[in-house]
Amino acid sequence: MKVHDLRSAIELLKTVPGQLIETAEPVDPHAEISGVYRYVGAGGTVMRPTRIGPAMMFNHVKGHEDARVLIGLLASRERVGLLLGERPERLGFLLNKAVQSPIDPVVIPNEEAKCQEVVHFADEPGFDIRKLIPAPTNTEEDAGPYITMGMCYASDPETGESDVTIHRLCLQSKDEISMYFVPGARHLGIFREKAEKHGKPLPISISIGVDPAIEIGACFEPPTTPIGFNELSIAGALRNEAVELVQCLTIDEKAIARAEYVIEGELVPNAYVREDQNTNTGKAMPEFPGYTGEANPAVPLIKVKAVTHRKNPIMQTVIGPSEEHVSMAGIPTEASIIQVVEKAMPGRLLNVYAHSSGGGKYMAVLQFKKSQPSDEGRQRQAALLAFSAFSELKHVFLVDEDVDPFDSNDVLWAMNTRFQGDVDIITIPGVRCHPLDPSQSPEYSPFISDKGISCKTIFDCTVPYHLKDKFKRAKFKEMDPSIYASSLFNS
Fold first, then answer.
1. Is the model's pLDDT at 486 over the cut of 70?
2. What is the pTM of this model?
3. Which entry of 215, 253, 264, 287 is annotated as an active-site residue?
4. Which of 50, 118, 217, 261 has the most CB atoms less than 10 A away?
């Protein structure tokens, strides 16, 4: 089944048992949607009990009778593989190939754009984005309703080059949204700074509910996708078909034509608000490391000009620390590592897993093959390359070809039988990482000079090449288990 938007992705999931469930029970978008889905399929770094499970559609959202809310679309690596047409363990390789063969987006006429079937202008009486969009809160402490799966699209005011990224967007009033930027990390932050320098607003569209290929492709970061690289072209390569854009109605910018919702607005120059100005909780929302982020005292402000949407739209959302973040951030991270290591030492890196416990960002497991004596030490060079490929990576675990990098028990087995702490740990202190890790702060250690500074660490759980013959795993007879498994099941 061909997937080209959110609705076709949902139809595909309906054909596979256990990948999508729906409920007609009334649910309040204030904390209840995430409260339910935590048990159904959130996974990731969400506080236990939680698990990997199906995506979930809420068909009766209080206050939004004409809309539905979908959560957990990408909260399973198996489901991502299904939606992208690839085996789960090969997704990093699929994305690496897509980055190297991009297909640029195209613009279609407004009358053909599904996202503009219904139009609400901000100057109309009674306009209120909080009533139009069923944006949930993840917890009762959140700074407000958040759009967590908004594809933010803007263009460089100097070069005209465009890009798409995902940001923390909090609904602040009937026509205002705050937008959080991780310092120095995203292309749109540079676009905003350029516009602000000249005292001009930056037009921006926010597309919600799109083809999952777009959501995955939007999560690449430099150096894999440098300034000037439109990440919508990655989604085009994944589908072998250009992403369709449409001209916005109130601003000089494009939006994703098949989106469920589009918010049109402008980032106002030199306009900042306190993120929790409506709740005063001091909290923003749960973030990927598993902790609730602090409310930022001054975040840039978007002035909304219009909201357009499909008939009976579907709001897509995500729990910040869930497995969905692991899929969106982690698989592009794997592709970035594969690309840089393969260029430096072809054929030695067999696979990469950006581990769930690091939210897809902090921890990677590299499966490395040593074929000759001179390969000894190259595994550590591969780890150093991984750090350069993705700057927010904190820990790298190195394992041999007979260890499954996607099986945490197997990785820990390698650590317990092929690792000595005084020999196989390599530390690189004082390196910039990611500010959302609470241990990366001067309060945690006097040796940390600034928030976001970390000690990057390599755990080399590979067997020294000259000892490989002494570390062979027990060999079992090759059998076809299907006959016996079937008999056991039937009994």
1. no
2. 0.94
3. 287
4. 217
